[in-house]
Amino acid sequence: MNNKFSKILKKKNRSKIICLTAYSKNIAQIIDRHCDIVLVGDSLGSVLYNYKSTKSVTLDIMIEHSKSVRMGVKKSLMVVDMPHNTYRNSSEALKNAKVIISKTKCDAVKLEGGKKIYNIVKTLIKNKIPVMGHLGILPQSAKNFKAKGKKTIERNSLLKDAKILDELGVFSIVLECVESSLAKEITKNIKIPTIGIGASVYCDGQVLVTDDLIGLNFIKVRFVKKFANITKQINNAIIRFKNEVKNKKFPKKINSY
Ligand code: KIV
After folding, report:
1. Which is it for strands 108-110 and 131-136: parallel, antiparallel or unpaired?
2. Directed axis angle between helix 180-189 and helix 152-168, to 10°?
């Protein structure tokens, strides 16, 4: 594993890991300055394409967006989600992960699941493909979007999944909507960092969909905090442009040839 990975591993129990999503170059280059990990999440399916679920996201869509993101990411670790139905077995996963890495030059791929994808993760890691895990709500296969880890049986199985992924050698695990005390327990019991989304302050880092946190995507879920209202700022800029065009104040001589 290269320096970027060891930097992230070293942050466990020391300082929080910052992870955000990017789907294109312009946002990527802004967040790259502040992040440890930039994730090209398949959440782009709902955020950009209005798909009902991430299940409709294809490998080609992920690759094209990731190529754009790659141009903006200089210092952070870049992770790309393997979309639904691209890792149904080990050979399919290996073939597609290699395509993602060679075409996008990302540093790692993210896969959803625990013991169910044991052989797949094992194959990728054996072939030197760095993997980020994802447990809790798994949008690619979720039947509902209820928080995970309230029932004992679910808690035990999530903790077991996290330990399995840790032992397999994934470099970190996203915990999505995992009940706080379980997120704390998982974080304590594995060597690698946990990155939470709706999974409490006890995780080693946090991830959010950038469009949600800047107020560009109108989603109302408990785990999102709107840190800016970028839509308002875009609106204001466009209103000013429109007014200046109508009043012949734009373009000025300096803007013309
Ligand atoms: O697809 C995505 O953006 C994600 C994050 C929300 C963790 O998986």
Report:
1. parallel
2. 30
CA-208 nearest atom, ligand 1: 6
C-alpha distance from residue 70 to each of 97, 102, 127, 160, 238 (Å): 16, 12, 22, 34, 29
**Which of 184, 106, 156 minimizes the C-alpha distance to 175?**
184
Distance from the alpha carbon of residue 16 to the mean position of ligand 1, in angstroms = 18
Calpha distance 73→6 (Å, rounded) = 18
Nearest CA to ligand 1 atom 3: 41
Nearest to 81 by CA among 106, 53, 103, 51: 106
* Identity of the amino acid at 109: V
- How far apart CA 17 and CA 217 sit, in angstroms, is 23
Selection from 135, 223, 147 nearest residue 172 by Cα: 135
Task: Quickly list DSSP for 179-241.
Answer: -HHHHHHHHHH-SSPEEEESS-TTSSEEEE-HHHHTTSS----TT------HHHHHHHHHHHH
| pTM higher than 0.90 | yes
Contacts of 225-228 with C-beta under 8 Å, sequence gap 24+, read none
What is the CA(21)–ligand 1 centre distance, in A? 7
CB 47 within 8 A of CB 37: no
From the first residue on, what is the mean pLDDT of each consecutive set of 10 residues in the chain (257 residues)? 90 97 98 98 98 97 98 98 98 98 98 98 98 98 94 97 98 98 98 98 98 95 96 98 98 98
Nearest atom in ligand 1 to the alpha carbon of residue 54 is 1
